[in-house]
Write a structure and sequence with these properties.
Strand content: 25-35%
Keywords: Cytochrome c-type biogenesis, Membrane, Transmembrane, Transmembrane helix
Domain ResB-like: 126-389, 439-538
Radius of gyration: 47 Å
Structural class: alpha+beta
Shape: elongated
Largest sheet: 7 strands, antiparallel
Helix content: 25-40%
Transmembrane segments: 120-144, 185-204, 265-287
Protein name: ResB-like domain-containing protein
Region (Disordered): 12-36, 76-99
């Protein structure tokens, strides 16, 4: 396609117009200025190289063809190809350009928004505010009783008598603070803090590590003297200095007269590890809150239950495993007592059976010593009095259910009644039996008068209202809590990594530069922490340089004397 500002016309051209068609000109040709340029375009008179096309001979006396350059004040028209097909091609090209511009604009907008979002999330005050908010919610979760029925909060936080003048049950149940650690507010703050940690790692910590890993030699003594610590060593060499630095644990690199050394690079990686560990902890806590099961059950001695019957999901990610089909049998429940008679410890002998009735595990659990099987943990948390086996006048034994009686405080009291008359009558009388634990039973007659105390293990008879009563056995019940928590391994791993990376982060990243300037070595260095220790280390290091120089000089003198 010709230049948009000029056409090159060859004269004479009229005789060759049928061989070289001219480009179409516009209907109204723009005004033009002619500038004649002579050039040596020597032509041959024959037909060689023309492919059989006859050329007109150059007029005699000229020997040269004259070229004429014509400049237009306006751009020439675009050539049309294929009888109008060029217009469609031009339209398609313009459409592609427009689409490309839109795509580039959209991509630029996404990049700007991403950069702005990362800058906002990596803001340190924002991250600190998030951590304080999470800590406040955790403290609030320890004050508010968790997992209770709504009626409990209706009673404890009534609207007619708000706590602190404004806190009612609506403030607790509406945001889900009755299950604080799985509430949307708490989980949302965890997600926001995790996003802040990842943004800070991407925008700050990773670039710092990349810079720290580079070998940066300094080739100017002035730049070295600007460091936190700088000194000049006469009659020294960077080779001697490098040997001493390696003895202090530095990685040493030399390039010509320049030296670079560093140590403690792991301290630069540690903040990234701290962020990752915190993300692991929050991910594990989130999984625990949304993917676990929990249940509790009171089982009398000798009975059993199926794990899946007592477990309740806690979140949307809770999926029941096959181990929920396992059956638990309470072989025995017993307690130990202090000399004062108070309960010191209680035990449950448990057996686990699979679907085929095969015992797969047996263990006696106690407080702080649970049973773990297939991801399910069974804790010993409570005890109760299930039944009392009694003989009356040699008949029985009868199993009398023991009912818990409400007392002020944490003391437990259980009671039952042995009827002596027709139990179908409206006014039943009998022998009352009370117990605070499984080791002694207090008996009262029909009038409510104290008769005596018997231990179930003694089996000594006692006569009450003409009836001989024997306490055969006291059957206790065990209180068990069951839980599955898939987030615990992740949380433990996160805390372990957090402790390790926190300790590593206290390692100082120290850098030293040196330059051989004639017979003098200019040395300088800096560190990111422990600056006083770094200064003391540098002084000790420099004290060894003269010693090494003296040793080298003695070696040289001995070699010279030997020769």
């Amino acid at each position: 396609m010709p230049s948009p500002t000029c056409y090159l016309l060859l004269n004479p051209a009229a005789s060759r117009s049928h061989h070289r068609p001219r480009l179409p000109l516009p209907a109204a040709a723009p005004p033009r200025r002619r500038v004649h340029v002579s050039c040596d375009a020597r032509r041959t008179g024959g037909g060689g190289g023309g492919g059989g096309v006859k050329r007109e001979a150059i007029p005699a006396g000229t020997g040269k063809a004259k070229k004429q350059v014509v400049f237009f004040d306006a751009a020439p028209p675009v050539s049309q190809r294929g009888g109008g097909g060029g217009g469609e091609g031009e339209g398609e090209g313009e459409g592609k350009v427009a689409r490309r511009k839109k795509e580039n604009a959209a991509l630029g907008l996404v990049r700007r928004l991403t950069k702005r979002t990362l800058s906002l999330l990596s803001n340190l005050p924002l991250a600190i505010s998030e951590m304080f908010a999470i800590a406040a919610l955790m403290a609030l979760g320890t004050v508010i009783d968790q997992g209770e029925a709504p009626s409990y909060y209706f009673e404890k936080f009534p609207e007619d008598n708000p706590v602190f003048g404004f806190i009612t049950w609506r403030w607790i149940l509406t945001p889900g603070f009755d299950h604080m650690f799985s509430s949307p507010v708490f989980l949302g703050l965890l997600a926001l803090l995790a996003a802040s940690l990842m943004a800070c790692t991407y925008t700050t910590q990773i670039p710092i590590v990349k810079v720290a890993r580079r070998w940066s030699f300094m080739h100017s003594a002035g730049s070295i003297r600007k460091q936190e610590f700088a000194e000049s060593l006469p009659r020294a060499s960077i080779q001697d200095l490098g040997v001493i630095l390696m003895g202090y644990g530095y990685e040493v690199f030399t390039k010509g007269p320049s030296l670079y050394a560093f140590k403690g690079l792991a301290g630069r990686f540690a903040p990234i590890g701290v962020h990752i560990a915190m993300i692991f902890i929050m991910a594990g806590a989130t999984l625990s809150a949304t993917g676990s099961f929990k249940g509790s059950v009171d089982v009398p001695q000798g009975l059993n239950f199926v794990i899946g019957d007592v477990m309740k999901p806690k979140g949307v990610l809770s999926f029941a495993p096959d181990v929920f089909n396992t059956e638990v049998h309470v072989n025995q429940f017993y307690m130990e007592y202090y000399d004062s008679g108070e309960v010191s410890q209680f035990y449950s002998d448990l057996s686990l059976f699979d679907l085929d009735g095969k015992e797969v595990m047996r263990k006696t659990i106690k407080v702080n010593d649970p049973l773990r099987y297939g991801g399910v943990t069974i804790y010993q948390t409570d005890w109760g009095f299930s039944a009392l086996q009694v003989k009356k006048n040699g008949e029985g034994p009868f199993n009398l259910a023991m009912a818990p009686l409400k007392l002020n405080g944490d003391k437990k009291l259980f009671g039952t009644l042995l009827p002596l008359e027709n139990s179908d009558s409206s006014n039943v009388k009998g022998i009352s039996m009370l117990a605070r634990d499984l080791q002694s039973i207090v008996l009262y007659d029909q009038e409510g008068k104290f008769v005596g105390v018997r231990r179930p293990s003694s089996k000594l008879p006692i006569e009450i209202d003409g009836n001989e009563i024997v306490i055969e056995d006291a059957i206790g019940s065990t209180g068990l809590d069951l839980k599955t928590d898939p987030g615990i391994p992740i949380v433990y791993a996160g805390f372990g990594a957090l402790m390790l990376t926190t300790c590593i982060s206290y390692l100082s990243h120290s850098q030293i530069w040196a330059l051989q300037d004639g017979s003098t070595v200019v040395i300088g260095g800096k560190t990111n922490r422990a600056k006083l220790e770094f200064s003391e280390e540098m002084n000790r290091l420099l004290d060894k340089v003269p010693e090494l120089i003296s040793v080298n000089e003695k070696k040289i003198d001995s070699k010279q004397s030997a020769t």
